[in-house]
Amino acid sequence: MTDTTAAKIRPPRNQWWDVWDQFKTHKGALVGLTIFVAILGLILIGPLVWHIDPTYVDFRARNKGFSLAHPLGTDQLGRDLLARMMAGGKVSISVGLTAMSLSIFLGATIGVLAGYFKRLDGHLMRLTDLFLALPLLPLLLLMVTLFRDPLSKGFGPEGGIFLLIVTAIGATSWMQTARIVRGEVLALKEREFVLAARSIGTPAHRLVLRHILPNVMSPIMVSATLGIASAIITESALSFLGLGFPPDFPTWGRLLFDAVDQIQLYPWRVILPGIAISLTVLSVNYIGDGLRDALDPRIRGR
User: What is the pLDDT of residues 66-121, one digit of tens each?
Assistant: First the structure.
């Protein structure tokens, strides 16, 4: 069999392999992916190896430094900081992923509807402008203050606060995604393949789902990675202000809040969660940069 014949019968290469090949050329994205996977492995697998309860109080081990028994030391109540860092990372990243999913769903839905249906464009964009004009931090603080007690009673202290923070962050961070997706849809709906599908009578919902939405996945995925970083920072800020999870429910922001009173005596208690937040946010941002380049057909293949 000749090479020409083999090339003819060889199945077409999956597009995602091309995306991965382009992604691998972005060194910062590879480093970010490695760091993010390492952090995920630590917070998911670490508790299976390190069995100390992050909420266990041992007054005899208060304010201990680094040691074999407590590699990252203990806090003012004798709680193991390594266990609390791993538990806090699981909560913070869970908040980031869940809030990002809600934000992307809202932003993509509103962006597609506004871009494709002209009669909805004005109303949805005015709604987007309204949310963009709102002061987000005071709005978040107001939502947490008003709904924390009712949700805590209905879903428990941890479940209620998790639901509240995820909803508050997701409901106030979808606007940029909506604007980006709307712009992409406005350009796509005038393309030849969309006009051809419309000319043969393809229903609007099928045209959106099969032709429009798959072609706007690139900006949606990039917005998703950046949304994770933004949600983690917002949750950390709320917890640092004392408006996040309960004191016995660790997050990286809560660890910062608990340690700020003793920052001069035990600075590593602030440095450690600060480094964890910074590394996670930076790694996710670099992954987003790599995805942006890899998913752009104008750059892919260079």
Answer: 888 888 888 888 889 999 999 989 988 998 889 999 999 999 999 999 988 889 88
- The proportion of the chain whose per-residue pLDDT surpasses 90, expressed as a percent, equals 17
CATH number of 79-296: 1.10.3720.10
d(CA 299, CA 25): 11
Q: Are 112 and 181 in contact (CB under 8 A)?
A: yes
DSSP lists the bridge partners of residue 80 as: 74
DSSP letter string, 197-247: HHHTT--HHHHIIIIIGGGGHHHHHHHHHHHHHHHHHHHHHHHHTT-SS-T
Buried b (16+ CB within 10 A) or exposed e, 273-298: beebbeebbbbbbbbbbbbbbbbeee
Q: Please, what is the average pLDDT of the chain? A: 83
